[in-house]
């Protein structure tokens, strides 16, 4: 993958841009950080659990909502932390 989206800096980035990207669309922050495989995984889990939450029976929908929320938090936090390291 092209590293055009990855900020090149010897002292590390701020991590805010990837975190904001992941805030709106889970997985995009990982993509901005250059972690394509992780981005696909976070996006896939968020998409599947989000769809399950909207169309499932009440008990399973609640569990899917919790998993979506945990995935969303993980995506934002991981994008920020990895952005700071780069």
Can you put this structure into words, describing what you see?
The structure is a single chain. This protein is mainly alpha-helical and 86 residues long. It has one domain. Helix content is 72%, strand content 0%. It contains 4 helices and no strands. It starts with 15 loop residues before the first helix and ends with a helix. The relative contact order is 0.23. The model has no long low-confidence stretch (mean pLDDT 85).
Helix content: over 70%
Give me the count of strands: 0
Contiguous runs where pLDDT drops below 50 for at least 5 residues: none
**What order do the SSEs take from the amino end to the carboxyl end, as H and E?**
HHHH
Largest sheet: none
What is the approximate shape?
A: elongated
Give the total of domains: 1
**Helix-strand category:** mainly alpha
User: Which range does the strand content fall in?
Assistant: under 5%
User: How many alpha or pi helices?
Assistant: 4
| Distance between the first and last residues' Cα | 16 Å
Using the CA coordinates, give the radius of gyration: 14 Å
Mean pLDDT: 85
């Amino acid at each position: 993958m092209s590293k055009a989206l990855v900020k090149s800096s010897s002292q590390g980035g701020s991590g805010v841009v990837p975190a904001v990207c992941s805030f709106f669309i889970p997985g995009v922050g990982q993509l901005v950080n250059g972690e394509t495989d992780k981005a696909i995984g976070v996006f896939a889990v968020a998409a599947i659990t989000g769809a399950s939450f909207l169309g499932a029976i009440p008990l399973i929908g609640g569990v899917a909502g919790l998993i979506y929320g945990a995935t969303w938090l993980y995506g934002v936090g991981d994008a920020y932390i990895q952005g700071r390291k780069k």
